[in-house]
Amino acid sequence: CGSDHSCYGPTNTVEHVRHVKRIQPGAPNAAYGPKAPLEWGQLNFLHTTDTHGWLEGHLKEQNYGADWGDFVTFSRRMKQTAGNMGVDLLLIDTGDLHDGNGLSDATTIDGTDSMPIFDGIEYDLLTIGNHELYISEVAYEMFNTWARKWGDRYITSNVKAFNQTSGQYEYIGATHRYFTTPKGLRVMAFGVLFDFTGNSNASQVLKAAEMVQEEWFKNAVETCEPIDVFVLFGHNPVRQTDSSNTLKLVFDEIRKVHPTTPIQILGGHSHIRDFAVYDDNSVGIESGRYCETLGWMSMTGFDASNSNFKGVKNPHGVPNPTRPARQGAKSPFVYSRRYLDWNRQTFIYHTKQTEAAFDYGSGLRVTDEVSQVREELKLGDVYGCAPQTWCISCVPFNDTSNIFPGVVLPAVSAIVVNKTREDKSRLIIGNTGAIRFDLHQGPFTYDDNFIVSPFRDAFLYIPDVPYELAKTVLPKLNSGPIAKRDLVTMPVPRDSCTDPTLGYLTRREMRQSHGVVRRQEVVTSGYVTTDDFGSDGDDTVHTGIENYALPGYFQAEVNFAEGSNPEAVDLIFVDFIESLILADLGGNYTSDMVSCYIDCDFTSQDFMLPYAKLVWQENIDNCPLAQA
Ligand SMILES: O=c1ccn([C@@H]2O[C@H](COP(=O)(O)O)[C@@H](O)[C@H]2O)c(=O)[nH]1
Ligand SMILES: [Zn+2]
Ligand SMILES: [Zn+2]
């Protein structure tokens, strides 16, 4: 492709990219913000998970509009505050660093440009997500570059990569880490990925049940060294009833040896805000997704009888945690948790700063790096003007404002076409999980292409499948084991927008003009979180939002004659679900009957741009953003 990305899609008849115009980063929300200061304990945690490359923040949603540079400043200020108050603060990430945003996915190898930006945060502990393991090149980057850079802070207790030099699978990061915090707490940490099986052969994932049998694990749990607190973190849901959760299994193994030592759990993968009580001395937090949420968890209860803590018990001038893990808990420990909305107003409020005084040079440099990479990757290039917002789950699956009937089905129908077979009837099947984010009204940019459909899953097909058989595939898929998406609440904003009156500014200029720009009134729309501590965890109060169930798979019927069914169809699907499709077709169909539909390089990253050029050209030079 040329640098204007104009070669995508065989049916594109619209002239190439109309213009290059940048949309604006979101301004902080003036009307709503954090409800109260954070409760600081002896041991505090700031937690990110499932960032999926969203380091630029949400450019079309003010309430999640901070960028990674803002977070660099915030995290440094919070570390300093902890130091000044005489307490510990651990910064932790639980993986899924790619797949979901142009910043991470517009390079040949995912993460080439986003990972150095992500590395601007001085995490104490990091672990690996499944999205670091689908593609071998990405897994090797984690193994050869980032694991080396992060050293013993990168913990992959059950994930190995193939070392081409030794010919062996070796742990990508450390298996565990035993360390002492600045205030003297002796911590044992494990980083455990759920029992993921979709990885390429560049890596090996040990099931948690196997991991706990490993010699190193038993030695770490049974060590004679004193342990004041376990940090059990992982790309792994914290809710015990989630079928992917394997943290509970590891928790149980630790408890056999340490019946009352606190175990602080930090999880991810299911993209929700959540907080779960495991027992009287153990709680776990999960901190959403896509740089919408920053998780906060704190605890107090360490003393000379149960630890080596040398800091301040109840730091002054701030609220302190007060809640036992559960009513009647026999434990010295009390806790707090909070889910912070990812915007500068939140960061400024919790660091007691002003807009003018907040920034550090280190943060501004990272903000500039984000702008520079966006520029280099042409992520702001506009391909169309989306006339309305289509969401994934804020309306029912069959609603015209749902992204599947509204955008995905028409887009694959129009764009996923093999010219030599265009007269054939066809069924195009995909997994709804591949569509990652709502499409907002306004300029549809190169970045939005990755935001909506980031995966490089090739379109495959089997020609001339009898329709009577082909039509049974979708219902079988949707009643099968991988059919159900998570239906729990997620903090997805619906109707915030940026100020279209601002013209082109860099992110930094935008920030400097905050004091004078006209700002639209916005309501903080998003899901309300309910967890084991109740419904008061959202740091900014949300209005509540619907979250409708989705089937696991969608299907477009194309080129069907009015009122009659075809004899046979081309059955088209993405390679991610090939084995499921073959299983549902039955034994007569095997992988040697499957081939690439357009060509093997035409993937699910490639249908949205040509569709935008085909259907959303009206108002492209004066494209209105969504109204709040
Ligand atoms: O090539 C791919 C890889 C993944 N998916 C979808 O993503 C989810 C997993 O995403 P998490 O962020 O780890 O929850 C997987 O279940 C698929 O739905 C894909 O479509 N193609
Ligand atoms: Zn994820
Ligand atoms: Zn994941």
TrEMBL record:
GO BP, sorted A to Z: nucleotide catabolic process
Domain called Putative 5'-nucleotidase C-terminal: residue spans: 389-582
PROSITE patterns: PROKAR_LIPOPROTEIN
Any one annotated GO CC term: cytosol
One Gene Ontology molecular-function label: hydrolase activity
Stretches assigned to the Calcineurin-like phosphoesterase domain: 44-272
InterPro entries per the UniProt record, alphabetical: 5'-Nucleotdase_C_sf, 5_nucleotidase/apyrase, Calcineurin-like_PHP, Metallo-depent_PP-like, Nucleosidase_C, Pesterase_C1039, YHR202W_N
Classification via Gene3D superfamilies: 3.60.21.10, 5'-Nucleotidase, C-terminal domain
Keyword DNA repair set for record: no
Domain of life according to the entry: Eukaryota
UniProt xrefs under Pfam families: Metallophos, NadN_nucleosid_C
Keywords, alphabetical: Signal
PANTHER family: 5'-NUCLEOTIDASE-RELATED, ADL392WP
Protein's UniProt name: 5' nucleotidase
Source organism (scientific name): Trichoderma parareesei
UniProt lineage: Eukaryota, Fungi, Dikarya, Ascomycota, Pezizomycotina
